[in-house]
């Protein structure tokens, strides 16, 4: 799966957001999860086997031997009793019988059962045996890039929850087991399962018993086998629980590391944004130099050059974190200030949002891209099992993520002192020079501020609702620091986390583009819910509505100019290997002077070719090329087909394509060669171009640069 993922990653230079890549990444992630769990199961089973073997050697076998001895002893005693009785009752009165009786009596009296079995154990015990060791087969983890260590539990984001569940399960079994033992053994057993009246002396002389060996089996009780089983099971569970506990304890307050490398900056090492090379690079263990270079190139193509975002002149800079030592913890906790009184949640959050290093729910891929040198840090927010968590991300050798711990008093800490607010905690952590955790050694040196495109939610003032998107409403809004009017797409708070990521995906794609015919991204606001994508406000709104409402004022020349704008935008996208996949009049916007801008990148993919595998839901059938509908195969030439339909919509001034036909009927007719007739008053050359866009074979369709030239020629004629 990793090989497939890497292959996909390398294949498509700008494909990090691609669906195909997403799918292989997803499969790779799942495979990693299965592998890591299987690994942990294996490690725990080895421990279990070791315990079973030791129990057999040190408890079961000695107990068996001892049982034999006792049986022999008991039999001898019984026989003695029988013979005594026989002797006592056999008085036949005669001298001869008296003589016989005396003989019998003295012989019987001379029977010594204990003496008979004194040598029993020494005589019959098994020869000394060497403990069997159960070794981890190291070859199994050879190609896991060090993620899995022989015979060591793996604690990462793929396994941490599983380990915690397993621990709870083991603890419950242990408790249950102890109760059963107590019930079986009654007062003979003390709490920890040790036999109080251990008088058998069984361990003496038994080979291989160490001080950790289980207590001897109380063979006189009614259910020795059951007890033995319980003891062995207790030992197994206790050992496994201990292994898990210490593995989890090692993690401390660190967020479980990623178990599935993402080929992101976290593993690849990214040059600085403007292309200069920082000395902090190449942490990857993946790939050859060539593939590394290719990967770095990918990342460069994903990471936008800084000046692009300078359009928005840093209005949100805050004072930086003080470099002078912060006050010690006690200063923050005067006796009159109870923590819960002095710092309410909202106050804490407000001060947090004001910190330049607080990045809200910024996706981890972006976080990792921002932290480049040792000591770089930022704070972000994540949700785990529906609970909100604050995470300190630090670059220290690699990217480390520490969960901010909350004390019962509502204070915040890592391993050291606790503070009433996260801002104070971070300030102290930095000024004191104390590592965040002793294990990580990570020091805070440079707070990484929000980038200009990471907007503060409080700076976005929503005004009027202007549209409704797939994920939430779209608003006209004002950016408070500058007063600039913008359009804001909001994401419904209740949507699950993966949908929110998908929502932000549009922002990540748009972030890279700068073209007058592509709607411009201003930023994303992810510090609070609802998360938002902030874009330039395109005053004319949706092209479809515009065409329908202004039909009478639109000349052929204006319509042609609109087609040319759309072609220019699409030519730009094609050059960036971006397939829009949802090009239609409803997804274009109209700006001043009727300029058309391509918008709605919710379905876009940055790939040369994109194959849909998991079913085709919500496909705009009447705009989609046959090869995409029939085989799920998308390329820019599919966008060309949609562009033909867009031209048709423009020249018919907002009519519905294939009017009166259902989706399936339209699809069927197209497959049989049907094409829409030219809209009324559409000039011949334009219709001819539409027909070329609707060529059944994609290779026969023109590319966008050709389309642009054709339209420009018609326009200038
Ligand atoms: P989604 O991608 O979630 O479906 P859309 O991009 O289709 O959302 O936006 C829904 C509507 O919001 C559009 O039809 C348009 O009317 C309006 N809209 C979206 N973006 C802008 C913008 N940048 N400027 C003006 N109006 C916009």
Structure description:
With 717 residues, the protein is α+β, with helices and mostly antiparallel strands. It has 4 domains: 19-138 and 151-249, no CATH class; 306-447, SHC Adaptor Protein, CATH 3.30.505; 454-536, Phosphorylase Kinase, domain 1 (2-Layer Sandwich); 543-716, Transferase(Phosphotransferase) domain 1 (Transferase(Phosphotransferase), domain 1, Orthogonal Bundle), CATH 1.10.510.10. Helices cover 42% and strands 11% of the residues. The chain contains 21 helices and 18 strands. The protein has helices at residues 2-11, 19-89, 95-109, 113-116, 120-124, 160-185, 224-251, 265-268, 289-302, 339-342, 345-354, 364-370, 422-432, 497-510, 543-549, 556-575, 626-631, 636-651, 663-671, 684-693, 704-716, and strands at residues 376-384, 387-396, 398-403, 405-406, 412-413, 446-447, 454-455, 460-468, 473-479, 485-490, 521-525, 532-536, 578-579, 588-590, 596-598, 605-606, 610-611, 633-634. A 6-stranded mixed beta sheet has the order 7-11-12-10-9-8, with helices on one face. The chain has a 4-stranded mixed beta sheet with strand order 3-2-1-6, covered by helices on one side. Strand 1 (376-384) and strand 2 (387-396) form a beta hairpin. Helix 2 (19-89) runs antiparallel to helix 7, helix 6 runs antiparallel to helix 7 (224-251) and helix 18 runs antiparallel to helix 20 (684-693). The protein is elongated, with a radius of gyration of 38 Å. The protein starts with a helix and ends with a helix. The protein binds adenosine-5'-diphosphate. Adenosine-5'-diphosphate binds next to strand 8, strand 10 and strand 12. Residues 460-715 form the Protein kinase domain. Residues 334-346 have a biased composition (Low complexity). GO terms for molecular function: ATP binding; non-membrane spanning protein tyrosine kinase activity. Its EC number is 2.7.10.2. Keywords: ATP-binding, Coiled coil, Kinase, Nucleotide-binding, Phosphoprotein, SH2 domain, Transferase, Tyrosine-protein kinase.
């Amino acid at each position: 799966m990793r090989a497939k993922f890497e292959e996909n990653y390398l294949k498509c230079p700008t494909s990090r957001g691609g669906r195909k890549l997403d799918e292989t990444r997803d499969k790779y992630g799942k495979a990693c999860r299965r592998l890591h769990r299987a690994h942990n199961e294996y490690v725990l089973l080895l421990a279990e086997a070791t315990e079973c073997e030791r129990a057999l050697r040190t408890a079961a076998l000695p107990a068996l031997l001892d049982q034999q001895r006792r049986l022999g002893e008991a039999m001898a005693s019984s026989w003695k009793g029988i013979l005594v009785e026989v002797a006592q009752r056999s008085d036949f009165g005669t001298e001869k019988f008296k003589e016989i009786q005396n003989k019998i009596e003295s012989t019987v009296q001379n029977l010594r059962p204990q003496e008979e079995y004194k040598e029993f154990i020494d005589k019959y015990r098994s020869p000394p045996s060497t403990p069997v060791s159960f070794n981890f087969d190291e070859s199994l983890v050879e190609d896991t890039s060090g993620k899995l260590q022989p015979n060591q539990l793996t604690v990462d984001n793929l396994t941490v929850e599983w380990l915690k569940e397993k621990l709870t399960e083991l603890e419950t079994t242990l408790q249950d087991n102890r109760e059963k033992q107590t019930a079986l053994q009654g007062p003979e057993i003390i709490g920890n399962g040790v036999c109080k009246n251990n008088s058998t002396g069984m361990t003496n002389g038994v080979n291989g018993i160490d001080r950790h060996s289980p207590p001897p089996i109380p063979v006189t009780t009614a259910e020795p086998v059951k007890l033995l089983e319980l003891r062995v099971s207790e030992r197994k569970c206790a050992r496994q629980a201990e292994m898990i506990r210490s593995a989890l304890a090692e993690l401390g307050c660190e967020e479980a590391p990623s178990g599935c490398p993402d080929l992101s900056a976290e593993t690849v090492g990214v040059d600085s944004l403007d292309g200069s090379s920082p000395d902090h690079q190449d942490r990857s263990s993946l790939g050859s130099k060539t593939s590394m270079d290719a990967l770095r190139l990918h990342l460069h193509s994903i990471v936008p050059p800084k000046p692009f975002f300078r359009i928005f002149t840093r209005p949100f800079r805050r004072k930086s974190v003080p470099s002078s030592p912060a006050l010690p913890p006690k200063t923050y906790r005067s006796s009159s200030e109870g923590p819960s009184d002095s710092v309410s949640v909202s106050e804490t959050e407000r001060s947090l949002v004001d910190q330049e290093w607080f990045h809200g729910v910024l996706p981890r891929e972006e976080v990792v891209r921002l932290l480049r040198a040792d000591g770089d840090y930022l704070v972000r927010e994540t949700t785990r099992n529906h609970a909100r968590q604050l995470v300190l991300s630090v670059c220290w050798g690699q990217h480390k993520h520490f969960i901010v711990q909350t004390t019962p008093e509502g204070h915040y800490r890592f391993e050291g002192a606790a503070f009433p607010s996260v801002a104070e905690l971070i300030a102290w952590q930095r000024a004191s020079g104390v590592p965040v955790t002793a294990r990580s050694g990570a020091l805070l040196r440079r707070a990484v501020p929000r980038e200009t495109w990471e907007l503060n939610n409080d700076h976005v003032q929503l005004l009027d609702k202007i549209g409704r998107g797939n994920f939430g409403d779209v608003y006209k809004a004002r950016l408070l620091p500058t007063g600039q009017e913008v359009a804001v797409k909001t994401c419904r708070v209740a949507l699950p986390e993966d949908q929110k990521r998908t929502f932000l995906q549009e922002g990540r794609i748009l972030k890279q583009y700068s073209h007058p015919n592509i709607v411009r991204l201003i930023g994303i606001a992810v510090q609070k819910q609802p998360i938002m994508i902030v874009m330039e406000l395109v005053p004319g709104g949706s092209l479809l509505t515009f065409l329908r409402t202004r039909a009478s004022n639109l000349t052929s020349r204006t319509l042609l100019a609109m087609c040319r704008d759309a072609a220019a935008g699409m030519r730009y996208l094609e050059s960036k290997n971006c397939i829009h996949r949802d090009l239609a009049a409803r997804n274009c916007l109209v700006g001043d002077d009727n300029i058309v801008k391509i918008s709605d990148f919710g379905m876009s993919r940055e790939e040369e070719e994109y194959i849909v595998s998991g079913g085709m839901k919500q496909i705009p059938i009447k705009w989609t090329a046959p090869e995409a509908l029939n085989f799920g195969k998308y390329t820019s030439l599919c966008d060309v087909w949609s562009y033909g339909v867009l031209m048709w919509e423009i020249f018919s001034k907002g009519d519905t394509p294939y009017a009166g036909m259902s989706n399936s009927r339209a699809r069927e007719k197209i497959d049989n060669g049907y094409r829409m007739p030219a809209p009324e008053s559409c000039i011949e050359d334009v219709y001819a171009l539409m027909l070329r866009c609707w060529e059944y074979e994609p290779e026969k369709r023109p590319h966008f640069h050709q389309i642009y030239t054709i339209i420009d020629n018609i326009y200038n004629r």
